[in-house]
Amino acid sequence: MYPLTCVDGYRIPLREEVYVTEIIPLTSGPATISSDQKLSLFNPANLSAGPLVNLLTRHGNITCAKAFDVGNATVCTAGEDGSVSMWDLRQDPRQAEVARLTDNRVSVLSLACSSAGFSVVAGTELQDHQASILIWDVRSTPTPKLHYKEVHSDDITELNFHPSDHNILLSGSTDGLVNICDTRITDEDEVIIQTFNHDASIHHAAFLNDTEVFALSHDEKLALYNVAESHENGAATTDFGDMREVLGCQYVANIFAKANGAGAVIGAGTHDREAFEMIHLTKSQTWNLDRDNSVSMSGAHSSEIVRSFCFYDEAQTVFSAGEDGYIKAWRPSA
Asked: pTM for this one?
């Protein structure tokens, strides 16, 4: 196990309890969203100086955010009033909200963005027996170009595009399903090209590479699936089971594929020990957990949950955000 040391941090200076709920890694530095309805951008080399950009969003209650263009600091946010906003964090704060996507009044729980496909996708909670996936073309009108109403039968908690094909969309729901959709197809009866039944409410799901996806449930069960035609039955190719038992943790924050294709990283926390650990998920003939080379962040966010983390490999820095209102930077000990 390799220990990291907390080298920098910033806490939102409010009396009431504020959570930092998500980190959005951008080329210019980490952006965050927080329960005080703010979208913020930080200097990765000086968190403690406070945010470089600090924008008040207008979603009633902000629920999610995704990078639209990592290099050009463009971020999408969404929330309980159903609105989706696009922000250019390079702009003067008064002009930073560059688009407001409308025509939806149902709370948005998940987002996916593809700058290559000029697409922003929102997944809604279940309302009036319907959970929707709405897709906007940001080059045209502020109303959605596609509206799928039957892909899931409950809250849509996760959306992610395929890593190399911006027409292929993954969706996950509290109905226990992970669906792979071809967004070139408008017919709801034909749009789903593959379904994986995880048999538990989906917390996170995404592509690990061009053919494999992971699904993590709200009760921390992890399984991997393959979208290749040879695995058409939809059964899990690797089932790790309850990660709390496997890793000796209390929760899994998220799982991120490594940019170089060398597997993925699982972020797992333990309140009682004030600990957070990043465990490598490696691929040879099969997928395996590499516990020997895990990375520990002792102290983490004290006994509060780590809601989000990201890594900047070139800078050898990990950023974490938690329910203690902090964003922290971690590096290997000198």
From this structure: 0.96
